[in-house]
């Protein structure tokens, strides 16, 4: 019952927040996005003021009352000072790098000054929304970057939660905070699971001959370099001698490229995906060409880092149909 | 940081707060015990060592706990003598010191900050002069500096100071509005007061003692009159009525005290019949540690707040509900022409006829002789006063001590003394003659500080006699006036000057000073008075007066408008502070001059620049401008281009020169273009 209510409440808050502070990778803090409220210390300050007022009244001491009025004025002013200082910030998120499951993604936030020449001061604290781990950065120390680690338990594409930023500058009487949705998503690849590399070749329709790939780096021949071929294939020795650009080809390139195939149906999908992940990494290390078949989705054979990430993203998104670029 | 732990070495904020607590405790020299101050200084030393990294680890919790137990035992022991208020202050300072040693968490720091604020407030209990107020506001600045250092440790310290000073400056108008507007209530409950050093008139007067009181030039009170100011000889400020006499010492009668307490319990107030002619005045009394207030007879508290806090006793004293621990303002209305009726004739007769049985035989026989000659009370009193006038009595502040048979020695042998000698002797004589008499102490005269302001100093202390001549009530007699009329008409200074005694008393050293020194001391006295009256003495009544002055008369509607007006004023202040000003300062001067030149050219030629590059616009504008204007615009444009795109590393000085040049060019351009049209 209670959790139900909490759930509904959370939903409403989320909805409200997403309307009030829409997602964007770059945000200027302003009236709509900043919340402000006295801190516990601010309330304590008020209580101290009240104590001074009572003391001053009971001793009929005007200086104490004047001190009380001063502190009250200061409290009022700080409302604006805190807000203005916080509103000078502009937040920019750096695109986030994909990670393997069980690893830590890291979101880098840039804290830039808002348009005018005045910059914000004091310590800015940041953390994930509803998470007590807070990372601080002192703006006066000329650091403007802040990294927030995000633990990624499971494979998939996760939108990052809102980032809570808060500051208590200048006197800690008020806390200015904001919950920003920086419109970032992290792609979490399956955690690699060690296994043997199994490339399958489409010898004929329906036939799936499986062979161990051997001798894949046996040197086969030199052929003229074509625009776009990886540089490590270039036969630098011959280029250095002043010859034309030629690239080395290896024996396996002559053969048909193999495919990594997700065995379907399978008992433990995650395990299979993890194994595929491991194989993709291994094959890329060895610079081999390979394709990937995940059910209906097929990634044509290719090689290199970009291809690896494409394949791993497909694993992360599986069973989603649409393939990443 | 957010985990709650603070760095130890090099943490400026902790050091600042340690220094501050030490400074505050040194300023509270009066209430604090020496060992408490020493403890604070030790704490400061610990903090400094930690700050400099001489040793890394703060003393552990066990040591501190032990210290805390020891300190509280010591405090408990001393608190018996100290009284509640002083014990509490000592406790607060001890707690602060111990907290300072263990200061390692965020919370600790913030608690210390709040304690610091409180200590500043406590400081105002003991010191309220202008200088102390300035000192305490400086400490407030420093305290806030510590706080901002806590929240922005890396900020340049000059910037921190600037931020804090700026905030305090901006807060002051708000504080003043609040101070004027917020109600100044009466005390909500009785606070513990200290048994601190009492100054001024004492409750016991032993005329044989030395005259130590008159040698002090401390201020006792300022009286600010609203209308007419009474002449010096009428200014008898009553403080205490002494009715108990044991042959040597006059003091307040314990019977009287008991009656008063009983009346106060049942709130049985005393309302003498008053004549219409009156003086209205406000008195700002300095701290005396005693409840007696000063006023001219017959005095009645003027406002309702004062009526609640001041008790008019049946012997015409004004008694505050708590001793004057700090400056205190009260408003009084005096009816000088009213006789002082005796509220209970039989009782007062009984109280004021008591004389010791033994001693002073010569006086007793002399009084018996005199009484047989003058059976009428009035005539007898005149005869006694005539005796003072005819015999060679001397007014002096340093009479010989007269410990045994005071009246005999004084009246027949020494014949030298000051006011309390004369008053004591006369009251004793009257009592012997069967006329109820008592001694009244207070102040007489006072210097005129301003047109309507009288300042009364300790050396104005005086004693006189009251006697029941007929059943109408009490009549004042001042034997000193007979012996030394100048004491009453011109003041103590002039009296001493006349007798040649003045040189002995250093307190009058500024008497007769001329020129700048006198001007300065007068200015300081005026400033002090202004401070006392408008800041320390600003009370409910003055607030009402201010409101009446502002509003005409006070109605609920008016008050609502006033409050709304003040809120609007505060909001306007805030708007003034915080609405971003589109000042040209944020644009650098180079761009500003260029844009100005462009707008001049645009309005002259009708060509808009839009987003053209400066050189392209120059080329376009050239066709439409006269040669001299063109020349200047070209210079401005080239300067701008050079500044903006080429010279990144020019020095400030050269840049400034360039700016000056641009400004000149722009001005000439403006003139040229004007001529052109």
Task: Name the descriptors.
heterodimer; A: 325 residues; alpha+beta; 4-stranded antiparallel sheet; B: alpha+beta; 6-stranded antiparallel sheet; 24 helices; membrane (chain A)
Q: What are the low-pLDDT stretches of chain A, counting only 5+ consecutive residues below 50?
A: 204-216
Structural class of chain B: alpha+beta
Average pLDDT of chain B, to the nearest integer? 84
Work out the helix count of chain A.
7
Q: Spatial order of the strands in the main sheet of chain A?
A: 2-11-10-6-7
Protein name (chain A): DUF58 domain-containing protein
Organism (chain A): Alteromonas ponticola
Transmembrane segments (chain A): 34-57, 63-84
Keywords (chain A): Membrane, Transmembrane, Transmembrane helix
Overview of this protein structure:
- The complex is a heterodimer of chains A (325) and B (677).
- Chain A has helices spanning 2-20, 40-58, 62-87, 236-240, 251-254, 269-285, 305-317; strands at 26-28, 35-38, 89-93, 99-100, 103-113, 123-128, 135-138, 145-152, 156-159, 163-167, 174-180, 185-189, 199-204, 207-211, 219-224, 246-250, 258-261, 290-294, 297-302.
- Chain A has two domains: 2-189, no CATH class; 199-317, no CATH class.
- Chain A is an alpha+beta fold.
- Helices cover 32% and strands 31% of the residues of chain A.
- In chain A, a hairpin with a 2-residue loop joins β13 and β14 (207-211).
- By secondary structure, chain B is α+β, with helices and mostly antiparallel strands.
- Chain B has three domains: 12-154, no CATH class; 197-537, no CATH class; 584-676, no CATH class.
- Helices cover 54% and strands 12% of the residues of chain B.
- In chain B, the strands form five sheets. In chain B, strands 9-12-6-2-17-16 form a six-stranded antiparallel beta sheet. Chain B has a five-stranded antiparallel beta sheet with strand order 8-3-15-18-19, covered by helices on one side.
- In chain B, α21 (589-605) packs parallel to α24 and α23 packs antiparallel against α24 (652-676).
- Chains A and B meet through α2 and α3 of A and α5, α6, α7 and α20 of B.
């Amino acid at each position: 019952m209670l959790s139900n209510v909490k759930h509904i409440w959370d939903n409403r808050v989320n909805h409200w927040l997403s309307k009030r502070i829409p997602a964007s990778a770059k945000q200027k803090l302003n009236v709509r996005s900043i919340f402000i409220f006295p801190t516990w210390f601010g309330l304590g300050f008020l209580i101290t003021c009240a104590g001074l007022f009572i003391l001053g009244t009971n001793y009929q001491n005007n200086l104490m009352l004047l001190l009380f009025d001063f502190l009250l004025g200061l409290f009022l002013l700080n409302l604006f000072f805190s807000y203005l200082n916080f509103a000078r910030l502009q937040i920019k998120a750096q695109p986030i790098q994909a990670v393997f499951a069980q690893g830590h993604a890291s979101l880098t936030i840039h804290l830039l000054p808002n348009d005018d020449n005045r910059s914000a001061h004091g310590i800015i604290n940041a953390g994930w929304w509803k998470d007590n781990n807070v990372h601080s950065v002192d703006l006066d120390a000329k650091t403007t970057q802040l990294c927030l680690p995000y633990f990624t338990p499971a494979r998939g594409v996760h939108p990052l939660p809102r980032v809570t930023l808060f500051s208590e500058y200048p006197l800690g009487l008020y806390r200015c905070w904001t919950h920003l949705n920086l419109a970032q998503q992290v792609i979490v690849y399956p955690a690699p699971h060690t296994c043997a590399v199994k490339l399958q070749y489409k010898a004929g329709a329906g036939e799936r001959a499986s062979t161990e790939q051997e001798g894949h780096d046996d040197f086969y021949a030199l052929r003229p370099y074509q625009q776009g071929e990886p540089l490590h294939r270039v036969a630098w020795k011959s280029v250095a001698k002043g010859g034309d650009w030629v690239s080395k080809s290896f024996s396996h390139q002559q053969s048909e490229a193999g495919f990594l195939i997700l065995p379907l149906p399978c008992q433990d999908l995650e395990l299979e995906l993890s194994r595929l992940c491991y194989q993709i990494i291994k094959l890329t290390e060895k610079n081999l060409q390979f394709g990937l078949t995940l059910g209906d989705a097929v990634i044509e054979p290719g090689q290199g880092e970009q291809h690896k990430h494409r394949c791993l993203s497909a694993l992360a998104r599986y069973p989603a149909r649409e393939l990443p670029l | 940081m957010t985990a709650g732990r603070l760095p130890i070495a090099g943490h400026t904020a902790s050091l600042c707060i340690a220094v501050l607590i030490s400074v505050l405790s040194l300023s509270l020299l009066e209430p604090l015990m020496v060992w408490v101050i020493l403890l604070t200084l030790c704490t400061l030393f610990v903090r400094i060592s930690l700050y400099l990294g001489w040793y890394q680890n703060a003393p552990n919790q066990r040591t501190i706990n032990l210290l805390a137990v020891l300190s509280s035992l010591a405090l408990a022991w001393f608190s018996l003598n100290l009284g509640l208020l002083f014990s509490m202050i000592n406790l607060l300072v001890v707690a602060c010191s111990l907290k300072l040693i263990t200061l390692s968490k965020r919370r600790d720091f913030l608690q210390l900050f709040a304690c610091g604020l409180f200590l500043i407030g406590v400081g105002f209990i003991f010191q309220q002069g202008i200088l102390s107020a300035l000192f305490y506001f400086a400490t407030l600045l420093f305290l806030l500096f510590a706080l901002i250092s806590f929240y922005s440790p890396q900020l340049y310290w000059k910037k921190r100071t600037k931020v804090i000073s700026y905030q305090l400056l901006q807060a002051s108008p708000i504080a003043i509005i609040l101070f004027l507007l917020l109600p100044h209530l009466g005390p909500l409950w009785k606070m513990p007061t200290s048994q601190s050093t009492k100054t001024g008139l004492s409750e016991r007067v032993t005329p044989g003692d030395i005259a130590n009181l008159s040698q002090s030039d401390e201020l006792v009170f300022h009286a600010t009159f609203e209308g007419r100011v009474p002449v010096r000889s009428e200014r008898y400020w009553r403080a205490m009525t002494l009715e108990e006499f044991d042959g040597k010492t006059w003091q307040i009668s314990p019977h009287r005290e008991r009656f008063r307490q009983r009346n106060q319990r049942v709130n049985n107030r005393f309302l003498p019949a008053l004549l219409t002619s009156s003086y209205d005045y406000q008195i700002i009394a300095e701290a005396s540690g005693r409840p007696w207030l000063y006023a001219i007879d017959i005095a009645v508290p003027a406002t309702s707040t004062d009526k609640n806090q001041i008790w008019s006793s049946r012997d015409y004293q004004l008694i505050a509900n708590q001793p004057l621990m700090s400056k205190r303002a009260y408003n009084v209305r005096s009816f000088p022409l009213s006789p002082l009726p005796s509220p209970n004739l039989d009782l007062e007769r009984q109280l004021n006829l008591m004389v010791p049985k033994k001693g002073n035989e010569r006086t007793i026989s002399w009084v018996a002789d005199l009484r047989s000659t003058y059976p009428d009370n009035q005539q007898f009193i005149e005869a006694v006063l005539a005796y003072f006038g005819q015999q060679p009595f001397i007014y002096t502040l340093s009479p010989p001590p007269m410990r045994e048979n005071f009246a005999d020695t004084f009246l027949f042998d020494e014949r030298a003394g000051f006011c309390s000698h004369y008053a004591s002797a006369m009251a004793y004589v009257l009592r012997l003659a069967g006329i109820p008499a008592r001694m009244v102490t207070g102040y007489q005269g006072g210097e005129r500080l301003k047109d309507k302001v009288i300042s009364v100093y300790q050396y104005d202390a005086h004693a006189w006699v009251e006697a029941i001549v007929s059943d109408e009530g009490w009549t004042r007699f001042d034997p000193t006036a007979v012996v030394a009329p100048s004491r009453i008409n011109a003041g103590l200074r002039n009296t001493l000057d006349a007798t040649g005694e003045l040189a002995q008393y250093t307190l009058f050293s500024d008497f007769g000073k001329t020129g700048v020194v006198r001007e300065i001391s007068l200015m300081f006295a005026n400033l002090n008075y202004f401070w006392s009256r408008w800041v320390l003495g600003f009370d409910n009544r003055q607030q009402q007066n201010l409101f009446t002055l502002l509003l005409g008369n006070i109605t609920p509607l008016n008050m609502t408008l006033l409050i709304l007006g003040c809120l609007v004023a505060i909001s306007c202040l805030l708007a003034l502070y915080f609405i971003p000003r589109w000042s040209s300062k944020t644009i650098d001067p180079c761009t500003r001059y260029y844009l100005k030149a462009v707008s001049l050219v645009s309005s002259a030629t009708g060509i808009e620049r839009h987003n053209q590059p400066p050189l392209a616009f120059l080329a376009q504008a050239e066709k439409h401008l006269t040669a001299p204007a063109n020349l200047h615009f070209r210079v401005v444009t080239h300067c701008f281009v050079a500044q903006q795109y080429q010279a990144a590393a020019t020095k400030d000085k050269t840049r400034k020169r360039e700016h000056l040049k641009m400004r000149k060019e722009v001005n000439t351009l403006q003139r040229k273009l004007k001529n052109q049209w």
